[in-house]
Design a protein that fits this description.
This protein is mainly alpha-helical. It contains 14 helices and two strands. It has a two-stranded antiparallel sheet. Helix 7 runs antiparallel to helix 10. The longest helix is centred in the middle third of the chain and has 40 residues. The two termini are 19 Å apart.
């Protein structure tokens, strides 16, 4: 069988199967919905505002709490974080964190789920998440949180918070609010989140010499509320802040600090002084060209 036929079959297998349809329908719905309701500044503000609200639950909750345990909280608030996190439409906290831990274990090796260097930009950006290969939660990677039945419930029925969120928007703001606040905002949120899997391993600077191709990118840090300081994160993973220095804007960490101030979270872990000194002792980080992503 020639390569072209094989590529087409692989594309259909991973990108066009039945379970991937909601992903593509959401993209078409965003375009068609905007054509119907028309552009408005208030709609755009709603989409961006809810993008950043839900981005925090991806970055500050799914990533820094469930994946890396960078701070502590109570069991009831842990459940609320997981429940509201599911409104990001990126499956449940256990699914997300289990796969992310696998990524760190094999970062930019052949076994990495979404390395752009090994598997190409398209696969790392969204192919792996729409593929049927990774539908199941990797409970062996997330046993510390899988012991809580309420978290297992949210992980299994992650669509329930999504339906509640979408329904609330439609009930309060009508069809236009549903299109801008749910459909458009969700599509933007997906691709904003996915840039960390793809672009932050290809474009940016490297302060620390890690064993992978992680990079710091100030623009992606703004888009993802601090996740763009990705080389920092891969060098020292278990911190609530990924912007290690005052000039590295990290909105997720600022929100966590506010939650800490009112007692909802505590014991926020930060990089030790030796890590900060190591970063300061290196020469100014320079842009490094990544190896060409696999085709």
């Amino acid at each position: 069988m020639n390569a072209a036929v094989t590529d087409r079959e692989n594309y259909r297998k991973h990108y066009l199967h039945l379970q991937a349809w909601p992903f593509w329908i959401a993209h078409l719905g965003a375009i068609a919905g905007l054509y119907v309701v028309g552009f408005s500044w208030s709609g755009l503000a709603l989409a961006i505002g809810l993008y950043y609200v839900r981005m925090f639950f991806v970055t500050g909750v799914y990533h820094r709490y469930f994946s890396h345990r960078a701070y502590k909280t109570s069991r009831w608030f842990q459940f609320l974080l997981a429940f509201f996190g599911a409104m990001s439409v990126q499956k449940g906290a256990l699914w997300w964190a289990g796969h992310h831990r696998h990524h760190h274990k094999f970062s930019d090796s052949d076994n990495d789920l979404h390395s752009p260097v090994r598997h190409g930009l398209l696969w790392s950006h969204m192919g792996w998440i729409v593929s049927r290969e990774y539908n199941d939660t990797q409970l062996d990677q997330i046993r510390d949180f899988a012991k809580y039945p309420e978290l297992v419930w949210v992980d299994k029925y992650h669509y329930v918070p999504v339906l509640m969120y979408a329904g609330a928007l439609y009930a309060t703001l009508g069809f236009s609010g549903f299109i801008w606040g749910f459909v458009v905002s969700t599509v933007l949120l997906w691709h904003g989140t996915f840039t960390i899997n793809s672009l932050s391993h290809v474009f940016g600077t490297r302060r620390f010499q890690t064993t992978d191709d992680s990079r710091n990118n100030w623009f992606l840090a703004l888009v993802t509320m601090g996740e763009g300081w990705h080389n920092n994160h891969h060098h020292y993973q278990s911190t609530a802040n990924q912007g290690f220095y005052w000039w590295e804007i990290d909105m997720s960490y600022y929100i966590l600090k506010m939650l800490g101030a009112v007692g909802l979270v505590w014991d926020l872990r930060t990089p030790p002084q030796r890590i900060l000194d190591e970063g300061r002792s290196t020469s100014a980080p320079k842009f490094e060209a990544s190896p060409s992503p696999a085709e």
